[in-house]
Amino acid sequence: MILTDEHRAIRDTTAQFIAKEINPYCDEWEAAGIFPAHLLFKKMGDLGLLGISKPTAYGGMGLDYSYQTVFSEELGSIRSAGVGMAIGVQTDMATPALANHGSKELLSEFLQPAIAGDKVCSIAVSETTAGSDVAAIKTSARKDGEDYRINGSKMWITNSTQADFLCLLANTSDGAVHSNKSLIIVPTDLEGISFSERFNKLGMRSSDTAQVFFDNVRVPQRYRIGVEGQGFRYQMEQFQEERIYAAASSLKMLEYVIQDTIEYTRQRKAFGRSILDNQVVHFRLAELQTELTLLRALVYEAVEGYINGEDVTLKASMAKLKAGRLSREVTDSCLQYWGGMGYMWDSSVSRAFRDGRLASIGGGADEIMLGIIAQKMGISPARSG
Length: 385
Known about the structure:
This protein folds into three domains: 5-120, Butyryl-Coa Dehydrogenase, subunit A, domain 1; 122-229, Butyryl-CoA Dehydrogenase, subunit A, domain 2, CATH 2.40.110.10; 232-377, Butyryl-CoA Dehydrogenase, subunit A, domain 3 (Up-down Bundle), CATH 1.20.140.10. Helix content is 50%, strand content 15%. It has helices spanning 5-22, 26-32, 37-46, 65-75, 81-93, 96-101, 104-116, 231-267, 279-307, 313-338, 348-356, 366-377, and strands at 121-124, 140-144, 147-158, 165-171, 181-187, 193-195, 209-220, 224-225, 269-270, 273-274. Strands 1-4-5-8 form a four-stranded mixed sheet. A four-stranded antiparallel sheet has the order 2-3-7-6, with helices on one face. The longest helix has 37 residues, at 231-267. The protein is globular.
C-alpha cells in the first residue's frame, strides 16, 4: 500500500481533528461513560471523514479502502479507545453492507445521513448466547403483510443508547442457519424497542454499550438490505472491514503506549539510573516496536489485496489475531515498567491495558481467527465466521 499526498492529507486532517476535538475531552468522557456522539459525528461528517470509502452519490468521497485505513490507523491516537471504536462502528461495521447491497431508497434514507453525521448507527449482531458464533442468533423477523415483526434481543451493542438506527441481523426463516438470516435497518424510535442501562465495562468506558430488546417491533420489509436470506453472507463480508479496522486502529494506540513508556522510564530513577537505561527494558521496547512494524506491514498488505478484489479473509484474520495478541503483550509489558504508577486507574498505560483487551474478543475472538486461519491453511475442517 503506497501512500499518496491524498492519503497524507486525510491522515493530517484526522490527526488535527483528534487533537482539537477529541483528546482534550477524553478524561471527561471516560468518567461519564459516554461521549456526545451526535455532536462529534456531525463535526466529522462536515469534514467528510465518515464517508471516505463510501459512494459520492450519497455524500462520500468515493475513495478506495486504503484511504479509509489511513483514517482508521489515525483513530488509534485517540487517548480513549472507546471513542475510536464508536467511530469505527459508524464507518466500518454498521454501514459497509448497507453501502454495498442497500437499495437506493435505503442509501438515501440511512447511509447519506450517517455519512453526513446526522444519524448515529450501531451494528446489532451479538446476543447473550451468540457472540462469535453468529449462526446461533435467535432474534427473529417474521413477515406480517408488508412488514417484519422483530422479536428478541441483542447484547453488547456499541453506540446503542445514542443510535438513530441499527443494522440488525435476524432470522427471517426457519431454514439452514447460514441461509435463513437477513440484515435489516431498524430505526431506534420504533414502538417495541427498549434498552438496558449502559454497561459498566472493564475498558472502552467512553463508549455507550447496552442490551437492546425487540418486542413485536414492526419494520417495513423495504428496510431489508439486499436479498432475503443473504444476511449471514453480507455480515461475513462486513466482518472483513471490521477486522481490518480493528488491526489498523490498534497500531497508533500501541505506539503511543511504547512512546509514553519510553518517556516515563527515562525520567523514573531506580538504583541511581533511569529505568530505561536497563538493557532488558530498552531491548524489550525495541522488540515490541518491531512487532508493531510487522503488523502494520500485514495490515497494508491485506488492504492492498482488498482494494484489488482479492479474498483477504486469511490476511484480515491474521491481522486481527495479531492485533489482539499485541494489544495484550505491549500494554502488559509496558505497564510493568511503570511500576505502581502503571497500576493507577488514570495512567495512559492502564487505560490502554483495559481498552486493548477487547481486541481479542470483539469482532470474532482469537479462537475464531485461529479457526479461520487453520481452515484456510487446509489443516482443519471448514467453519463459519
